[in-house]
């Protein structure tokens, strides 16, 4: 509709331009002694001829006349199109007014960003924007079992190039090995880093993914669910992972585990006092950058989550300590959420089939397939 209105707005200018060209051609014709002496044949715009002071009839028997007659035909086509467009706009406007009266009593949906909990805004969204450069420097290598999942998609896809959606792509460390991949993340700073690397990415919310449903061969949700603060929001994010997959497509979900240290050589395993916690992240301060005001909160260990905990400065480590909100998952919790998300709107059980669940890199992990 916007394009149609823009085109309609240009029509008067187009007509004026064409009339100007006609006038110029007629003026040139007058300067041609052969045309002046030969006279003019009937069939063109007499008003324009009179306004230009051309004697006799406005038609011409040579190329000048043919050009002018062609321009006259173009003007007539433009005017016909203008009438059609005007009619279409008036009809569309009437329909919209009629529809808006019917919908005026219904509730207006709220944009996802308007309902994000303050806890997530402060301790997830703003935090990752603040730490994005260091996050990219230290999180550059993908986990082997995630890469293995992506390689399995290549084997299962005709042509070997699967279409993959990375929902919470961070700095894009999995996108380079994912066939044809598109990604999204809530952090505009991390998305900026991805774009510098040449990836196809957008700033978006994992609860309102801007991709068409039933399209992708594979979908990733790596280290996203543990940053969502309510069960309803976790279910909504999982429903989006399921939605974008084509029937038969596979998804992989990773979320931080409560029971860490489950595997031999589990690097960085932690002990948590509760499932909803703040986990400190030390951001190295560059030389010459003043530290933020000190915080009275304990910033050296994980603590139960509560909103309003400010970043603190650790003078010994010369770093700003940010508090990341996380909900860590008990064994079996992730599978239960996924099956529940898969039953939304389904009439014959869950729309997903769990193919594997395991512990990896301090995360509980689930690989599933969307049923055909």
From TrEMBL:
Residues 166-249 form the Methyltransferase type domain. The keyword Transferase applies. This is Methyltransferase type 11 domain-containing protein. Residues 95-105 have a biased composition (Basic residues). PANTHER family: ALKYLATED DNA REPAIR PROTEIN ALKB HOMOLOG 8. Residues 295-307 have a biased composition (Low complexity). It comes from the Eukaryota. It holds the Pfam family Methyltransf_11. GO terms for biological process: tRNA methylation; tRNA wobble uridine modification. Residues 86-116, 289-310 are annotated as: Disordered. Keywords: Methyltransferase, Transferase. CDD domains: AdoMet_MTases. The keyword Transferase applies. GO terms for cellular component: cytoplasm; nucleus. The lineage of its organism: Eukaryota, Sar, Rhizaria, Cercozoa, Chlorarachniophyceae. It comes from Lotharella globosa. Gene3D superfamilies: Vaccinia Virus protein VP39. InterPro entries: AlkB_tRNA_MeTrf/Diox, Methyltransf_11, SAM-dependent_MTases_sf. GO terms for molecular function: S-adenosylmethionine-dependent methyltransferase activity; tRNA (5-carboxymethyluridine(34)-5-O)-methyltransferase activity; tRNA binding.
């Amino acid at each position: 509709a916007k394009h149609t209105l823009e085109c309609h707005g240009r029509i008067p200018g187009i007509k004026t331009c064409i009339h100007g060209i006609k006038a110029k051609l007629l003026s040139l014709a007058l300067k041609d002694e052969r045309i002046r002496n030969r006279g003019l044949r009937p069939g063109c715009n007499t008003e324009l001829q009179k306004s230009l002071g051309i004697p006799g009839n406005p038609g011409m028997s040579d190329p000048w006349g043919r050009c002018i007659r062609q321009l006259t035909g173009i003007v007539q086509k433009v005017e016909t199109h203008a009438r059609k467009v005007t009619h279409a706009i008036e009809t569309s406007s009437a329909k919209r007014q009629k529809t808006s009266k019917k919908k005026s009593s219904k509730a207006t949906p709220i944009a996802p960003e308007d309902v994000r909990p303050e806890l997530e805004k402060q301790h997830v969204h703003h935090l990752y924007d603040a730490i994005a450069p260091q996050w990219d420097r230290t999180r550059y290598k993908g986990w082997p079992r995630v890469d293995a999942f992506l390689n399995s998609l290549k084997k299962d896809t005709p042509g070997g190039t699967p279409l993959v959606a990375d929902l919470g792509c961070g700095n894009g460390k999995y996108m380079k090995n994912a066939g044809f991949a598109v990604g999204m993340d809530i952090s505009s700073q991390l998305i900026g880093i991805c774009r510098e690397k040449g990836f196809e990415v957008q700033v978006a919310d994992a609860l309102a993914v801007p991709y068409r449903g039933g399209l992708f061969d594979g979908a990733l949700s790596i280290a996203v669910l543990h940053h969502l603060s309510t069960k309803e929001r976790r279910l909504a994010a999982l429903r989006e992972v399921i939605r974008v997959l084509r029937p038969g497509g596979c998804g992989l979900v990773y979320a931080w585990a409560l029971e860490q240290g489950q595997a031999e050589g589990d690097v960085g395993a932690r002990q948590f006092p509760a499932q909803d916690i703040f986990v400190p992240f030390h951001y190295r301060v560059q030389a010459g950058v003043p530290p933020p005001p000190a915080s009275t909160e304990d910033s050296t260990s994980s603590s139960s989550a509560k909103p309003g905990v400010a970043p603190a400065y650790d003078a010994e480590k010369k770093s700003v300590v940010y508090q990341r909100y996380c909900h860590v998952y008990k064994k079996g919790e992730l599978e239960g959420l996924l099956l529940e998300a898969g039953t939304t709107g389904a009439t014959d059980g869950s729309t997903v089939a769990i193919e594997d669940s395991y512990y990896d890199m301090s995360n509980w992990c689930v690989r599933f397939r969307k049923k055909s």
